[in-house]
Write a structure and sequence with these properties.
It is a single chain. It is built from 3 helices and no strands. The chain is an all-alpha fold. It has one domain. The longest helix has 24 residues, at 13-36. Pfam families: CCB3_YggT. It comes from Tepidiforma thermophila (strain KCTC 52669 / CGMCC 1.13589 / G233).
Length: 97
């Protein structure tokens, strides 16, 4: 039985859902970090440190490539875009029911 792609490659729906959920959580973590950066919050707080440790490995490669636009850092937006593309790729690889 062929999968969802022309080459016949497909992944288990449970693995796809787990991956999709993980990518979704990362997306929301980046959004939360971006929103918290606008607030006068203590950067040593446990919540901020958790968000920083989880999202920095995803945002940092984009930050090294994309120049800042004045005071605006576009790297979180590009990281979110990359995560959304990965979610779509996962959705395309799911075995049809």
């Amino acid at each position: 039985m062929k999968g969802a792609t022309p080459g016949g490659r497909a992944i288990n729906p449970y693995v796809a859902q787990l991956t999709f959920t993980f990518l979704n959580i990362l997306t929301w973590a980046i959004i939360a970090r971006a929103l918290l950066s606008w607030l006068p919050i203590d950067q040593s707080s446990p919540l901020y440190q958790l968000l920083f440790r989880v999202t920095e490995p995803i945002i940092d490669p984009f930050r090294r490539v994309i120049p800042r636009a004045g005071m605006i850092d576009l790297s979180p937006m590009m990281a979110i875009l990359a995560l959304l593309v990965m979610q779509q790729l996962v959705a395309m690889l799911v075995v049809p029911a």
